[in-house]
Structures are given as structure tokens and as C-alpha cells.
Design goal:
By secondary structure, the protein is an alpha/beta fold. The chain contains 17 helices and 22 strands. The radius of gyration is 30 Å and the shape is elongated. Bound molecules: 1,4-dihydronicotinamide adenine dinucleotide and 2-oxo-3-(phosphonooxy)propanoic acid. 2-oxo-3-(phosphonooxy)propanoic acid binds next to loops. InterPro entries: ACT-like_dom_sf (IPR045865), ACT_dom (IPR002912), ASB_dom_sf (IPR029009), D-isomer_2_OHA_DH_cat_dom (IPR006139), D-isomer_DH_CS (IPR029753), D-isomer_DH_CS1 (IPR029752), D-isomer_DH_NAD-bd (IPR006140), NAD(P)-bd_dom_sf (IPR036291).
């Protein structure tokens, strides 16, 4: 069945065309309320949104088929990422498609505030020729303080330098080299507040940036400062800003985003030196076309080919990599599952070694799959997307090693799971038939595929075991499909991996350890 996508915000029609070309069925229903959306979300594999749709944990609860949320734009603060991750839903955005447009809007607001253009326009068109009422300020030679100098902040900085402004930037993640490259001076926040004639915000909304321009921060700004916010409402304390505008400390503000949107009322509204737009930062024909095309391509690539681009909660996988990775993802997950089904105590550490060809693939994705397989016997809800986070939360140390092929296999994955009691290890590969198989357990060579129902036995390598074991199963009516054996040395430790038809009855399993020389018997399911 073709994957089905819902577009729940106003996207350029370019998106629909791309989905359809790529074989994805698409419904366009912008403006649904949250209950209507919750009612239908269960029918979709993908959800394409802008900033209006709120993807909450509650909505995700009913999204049983959902595999991907695509944000046609940058900010994903309207998506509950941890909840999506826990459900295995990939969240992707289009990190560059609207950045020039948004930077231009910040510059536009800066001019609009500096020259009071909206108020002057309204007055002029009302027939009042108030030439003396509107006295602006020049931008040339002024200092612009950029808070958040990422993609958009950097474009704003470039444009501002072209306007002959001096640009200072506060961004803890801005490297001195990048600052030098951009021609901006990297400063601390307090320094920026004390020096800027204009302040423009370009950070995402996070716990650290929320209220970054608080009443306290605003009090540290220069008298006569003008503040532009084209990033997110809530980065600036709107009540405190209004008070600072009323007192005349802040000379003007240009706001595109508000703490509550749609903003039908707001503390800033009505002040003569405030210019507002209704979250139009990304609203140009060019930007909307860019983000719609890009999100539709990315979502289709994922749904049809398994390629992942610009995901917030998973490593990228190209369309070329995806088919190569697929059998190894299955292998990693099954190796993890093998170890997980045998592990009954707390896992301390997981070491994964990738040898040969597989070491050149996206090992982060393989590790995530191995951990998902490992943890699933204990935590049913864990998935490939959430596994690394779940492991981290549980204090499990994950170590990855890559190296050239050393043994008989072109590609080999070895998983070692360390618990309080022991270290368990299993290696596997994928042969040319694309099927994953186990090739070593505890360093003992075997050759077995992963079958739906298996029995794993460890025993002493003594004559007579195989006959007694096969008779026990045969007498109980359990049919053996395949039988794989391995041992470390003659008379040493041996293992048996037996594929059987159907479930292994618990009483039959219970009798295996009573056979002479048997140390352990476990039913496994793959
Ligand atoms: N008004 C609108 O329509 C639009 C608004 N936006 C908003 O603009 C934001 C920025 O977009 P981009 O520049 O593309 O993102 P980006 O990720 O390229 O840049 C964000 C920058 O903020 C910095 N940052 C993070 N935490 C910080 C902190 N505590 N203090 C100072 N800097 C910090 C980061 O280091 C990064 O350099 C988006 O997150 C989105 O919320 C984006 C597009 C349109
Ligand atoms: O891309 C972003 O972060 C934006 O804020 C743009 O929002 P929008 O898609 O115009 O609702």
C-alpha cells in the first residue's frame, strides 16, 4: 500500500506535486482543530506541518502508523520531540529553505522601526502630512547585537555589515574562526546588551533561550535601543519590554513572533513605536516553495526509500546508503535481540565492533538498531529512534569501534554486552543472499540464521548429547528445522542453535538442562 501523508498547515502546492510524483498519497487539510486532527492522524504514515499544527504527546498517542513528521521550515518547538522519539517517529525540518527570507524580514523590521514606516504610512494615507512627527535614526555606523548567530543570524550579520553597521554577536556555539570569517565581534551577552543600538534575536526556543531578554537583561541595554524579534515569542519578556518602551528606555521594537500565537492581543500592541507582523518571517513565495519542495522530497525519500535527511532525532542516511544499510540494520537488531533475550541483569556497557565493509556504513544507525534489539525484551516500547536515548537514561555506556576486516568475513558486527556478572558476545554477518546470520557466540564459531523460534543450548562437548537432545524434542513432537553446532575445543564448551517449527513448550524447555552436560537452555524468538 502506498504511504499516506497529511498536510495539516498551509504549504505551497509544490509539496503535493512532489508527493504524488514519488508515489505517496496525500491529503491536504490545513486548519483542522486538534480534536479533528487527533481523530484522523491514525490513518497517516507522514504528517507535513508548519508552525500552526501542534504535534503533542497526546496527538502522537493515536498516531499508530506515523513514521515521520516533516516541518516545512526551521523551528520544531511545536513538536514534542521526546514523545515522537519514544514512538519511533522521525522528525525532520528544512534547515535552510527560509533562512534568507527570514533574515530579510528582520532587516525589514529594523528599517520599519528605525523610520516608523508603518505609522508614517497610515498617517500619510489618512491625509495628514505629518512631516515633523516622524523623526527616525540612521542605521549606518550603529551597532547591531545579534543574539544567536546561526544560519539566519549570520545572514542578518552579513546584510547589516553591507549596510555599514558594526555587528557584535552573542552565541556560545559561535567559533572565533567563524566570527572572524563573518566579520562580527563575538561578545558575552552583557557586553552585547551594554553596547547594541539594535538587538536582533535568532536563537531557537530552548530552556536556555526562553526569556533571554528578561526584565533584568532589558535593564542592562542602552537607552534608546531598538529590539527586533523574528525568532520565537517568549525569547523576550513582552510585559517587561512594554514597560521599557513606555518609560522610553527602549525606543522601538519590531516583532514577528509572540508568546501566544495567533496573537489576538499582546502587551506590545498599541505602542506607537512597535511594529508587528503575524509570524511572516518565512512568508515569501521563494521560501515557501523551497521548504515545501524540500519537506516533500525528504518525507517521500524516507517513506519510500528509507533515506533520512535533516532529522532532528536520527542520523542522516542517504538514498544510496539506505539499501546497503537495511540488511545490516536487521543484523544489528537481531544480534542485540539475541543478547537481550539472554540477559536478565542490569546492562552496564555495550561494545560494538564493526569490521570490514560495514564499518564504512552509517554505524550510528546500526548501533541504535543493536541497542533497540538489546533493550526490547525488557522494554517493549523501545525502537531504533529512541534506543540511544533510552540507553543513556539507563546509564548504559555504548562504545563503537570500526576496523578493517581481519577474519573470514567481508563485514562483521560483534556485539559485547557487559553486565555485573559476565560479558556476553555475539558476532554476525550478512551473506550475499542478504540474510543476517550468527557466525560466532562467545568466540565459538557457528553458522546459523535467525529463525522465528529457536533453542539455544550451552553444554560440555561430550559424546551422546546430540542424540539425547534430538530424542527429547522428537518425543515431545517438536520438529527440528535446522541444527547448528559449535565448540571451542574438543571436550570443551559447546553451543547448539536449533531452529524448530512452532513454539517450544515450556515443559520441554525445562527438561533440557537435566540432560547430562547441559549448562543452559533458552528459547529465543526472532
Ligand atoms: N519568524 C519566522 O517565521 C522564522 C523564525 N525562525 C526561528 O529562527 C530560529 C533560528 O533559525 P536558524 O538561524 O536557522 O537556526 P540555527 O540553528 O542555524 O541558529 C541558531 C543559533 O542560536 C544559537 N544558540 C543556541 N542557544 C543559544 C543561547 N542560549 N544563546 C545564544 N545563542 C544560542 C546556536 O548556537 C545557533 O548558532 C529558529 O529556531 C526559528 O525559531 C526560523 C525561520 C522563520
Ligand atoms: O521556519 C520557522 O521556524 C518558522 O517560524 C516559520 O514558520 P511558518 O512555517 O511560517 O509557520
Amino acid at each position: 500500500m502506498a504511504p499516506r501523508v497529511l498536510i495539516s498547515d498551509s504549504l505551497s502546492p509544490a509539496a503535493v506535486a512532489i508527493f504524488q510524483e514519488r508515489g505517496v498519497a496525500v491529503d491536504v487539510k490545513p486548519g483542522l482543530d486538534k480534536d479533528e486532527l487527533a481523530r484522523i492522524i491514525g490513518d497517516y504514515d507522514g504528517l507535513a506541518i508548519r508552525s500552526a499544527t501542534k504535534v503533542t504527546a497526546k496527538l502522537l498517542e493515536g498516531a499508530s502508523r506515523l513514521k515521520v513528521v516533516g516541518r516545512a521550515g526551521i523551528g520544531v518547538d511545536n513538536v514534542d520531540i521526546p514523545a515522537a522519539t519514544a514512538k519511533g517517529v522521525i522528525v525532520m525540518n528544512t534547515p535552510f529553505g527560509n533562512s534568507i527570507t527570514t533574515a530579510e524580514h528582520a532587516i525589514a523590521l529594523m528599517f520599519a522601526v528605525a523610520r516608523q514606516i508603518p505609522a508614517a504610512d497610515a498617517s500619510t494615507q489618512a491625509g495628514q502630512w505629518e512631516k515633523n512627527r516622524f523623526m527616525g535614526v540612521e542605521i549606518t555606523g550603529k551597532t547591531l547585537g545579534v543574539i544567536g548567530c546561526g544560519n539566519i543570524g549570520a545572514i542578518v550579520a552579513e546584510r547589516a555589515l553591507g549596510l555599514r553597521m558594526r555587528v557584535i554577536a552573542f552565541d556560545p556555539f559561535l567559533s572565533p574562526e567563524r566570527a572572524l570569517d563573518l566579520g562580527v565581534e563575538k561578545v558575552e551577552l552583557d557586553d552585547l546588551l551594554a553596547r547594541a543600538d539594535f538587538i536582533t534575536l535568532h536563537t531557537p526556543m530552548t530552556a536556555q533561550t526562553k526569556n533571554i531578554l528578561s526584565a533584568e537583561a532589558l535593564a542592562k541595554t542602552r537607552k534608546g535601543v531598538r529590539i527586533i524579534n523574528c525568532a520565537r515569542g517568549g525569547l523576550v519578556d513582552e510585559v517587561a519590554l512594554r514597560a521599557a518602551l513606555d518609560s522610553g528606555h527602549v525606543a522601538g521594537a519590531g516583532f514577528d513572533v509572540f508568546t501566544v500565537e495567533p496573537a489576538k492581543e499582546n502587551p506590545l500592541f498599541g505602542h506607537p513605536n512597535v511594529v508587528c507582523t503575524p509570524h511572516l518571517g518565512a512568508s515569501t513565495t521563494e521560501a515557501q516553495e523551497n521548504v515545501a519542495l524540500q519537506v516533500a522530497e525528504q518525507m517521500s525519500d524516507y517513506l519510500i526509500r528509507g533515506a533520512i535527511t535533516n532529522a532532528i532525532n536520527f542520523p542522516s542516511i542517504t538514498a544510496e546508503e539506505a539499501p546497503k544499510l537495511k540488511p545490516f540494520i536487521a543484523l544489528a537488531e537481531k544480534l542485540g535481540s539475541f543478547a537481550g533475550q539472554l540477559t536478565e541483569t542490569d546492562i552496564k556497557e555495550v561494545r560494538i565492533t564493526y569490521e570490514g565493509g560495514v564499518a564504512g556504513l552509517k554505524i550510528k544507525a546500526l548501533t541504535a538498531a543493536a541497542i533497540a534489539g538489546l533493550l526490547r525484551p525488557a522494554l517493549q516500547d523501545v525502537n531504533v529512534v529512541s534506543a540511544p536515548i533510552v540507553a543513556k537514561e539507563r546509564g548504559i555506556v555504548v562504545e563503537e569501534t570500526t576496523r578493517a576486516a581481519e577474519g573470514d568475513f567481508e563485514s562483521l558486527i560483534t556485539l559485547e554486552v557487559v553486565t555485573e556478572q559476565m560479558t556476553r558476545s555475539i558476532s554476525g554477518t550478512v551473506f550475499h543472499d542478504g540474510k543476517p546470520r550468527m557466525v560466532a557466540i562467545k568466540g565459538i564459531k557457528v553458522d546459523a540464521e535467525f529463525a522465528p523460534s529457536m533453542i539455544y543450548v550451552t553444554n560440555e562437548d561430550k559424546p551422546g548429547f546430540i542424540g539425547r537432545f534430538a530424542s527429547l524434542l522428537g518425543n515431545a513432537g517438536v520438529n527440528i528445522a535446522t541444527f547448528a553446532l559449535g565448540r571451542d575445543a574438543q571436550g570443551g564448551s559447546a553451543i547448539a542453535l536449533v531452529e524448530v517449527d512452532g513454539e517450544v513448550p515450556a515443559d520441554v524447555l525445562g527438561q533440557i538442562p537435566a540432560l547430562p552436560g547441559v549448562k543452559q537452555a533458552k528459547a529465543l524468538r526472532f
